[in-house]
Amino acid sequence: MSKHRRAGSGSGPAPSPRARTTERGRRRGGARRRGSAGRPPRALVLVATAGLLLFGAGWVHALYEQPGAPVTPTRTDARPKAHAGAPEHAARGGARPDALQGLPAAALSEATRARIPAEARQLVLVTGEAKDSSESTAALYTRRAPGGDWVRAAQWPARNGARGWSTGREYGDLTSPQGVFSLSDAGGLLAAPPGTKLPYDRDPGFVATGRGVNGESLAGSFDYVVAIDYNRRRGVSPLDPVMPDGEGRGGNIWLHVDHDGPSQGCIGLPRAAMKQLLETLDPAAHPVVAMGPAGF
Description:
Elements: H1 17-34, H2 42-65, E1 99-100, E2 103-104, H3 110-114, E3 122-128, E4 135-142, E5 151-159, E6 165-166, E7 176-177, E8 179-188, E9 200-202, E10 225-228, E11 254-257, E12 267-269, H4 271-280, E13 288-293
């Protein structure tokens, strides 16, 4: 409706204010006199409203039935979607592309992982930076049941042989043996940490003589050791000199306290790490060590 005067109101002079007031009064009065008799029946209003609704619905239906008409929108699935990176449903199965039963694929090969005994539930994974490097990383993994996925419990910096790794180690070549070996016996110059479960031999013979490869002091290196079952008899002290595969392959390869330098073949770990391992490793869990350069 226009905001100007209605058409048909005439072009004569505008009514006076009093006349306008009287006119409004007459209209209101007339409306009051009509009362309820002037209103259309309620039923008629309801019928008219329903008719308008039906007409509108039919018009919309006709619109969407025409060729080229807009497509009626469909309801979308309102269920929450899995967020990016969420694990897939177990039924889909399949190995994770970046892990081998929870172990980092970049650290070891499928062939090496297959050599880890199924009954082992504790694993020390030592990963060298390179074939000829003495720098490495050690991590402790555990799993609840034989054959299950591994979960990392701790990780530390480590050192290995001064000349890296070898699969055919020889006595004095300054390499660490590459492979998977059991961990059966422990010992040291100091008393076993509380909770130690591996057989532990405290002996004054755990004293390193001489100096390290780089001339560093070896004092305290053998305060705590765990024997790596490479060319040794299981179930005896790490100090046992017998080498079943011959002295030419070397022996007495241990996990021991790091002396701030590369080793002649052992794995050096921080003192706190050695204590944690002794407090954790359990013969009932069949602990093993897997050691070698990255991807071995």
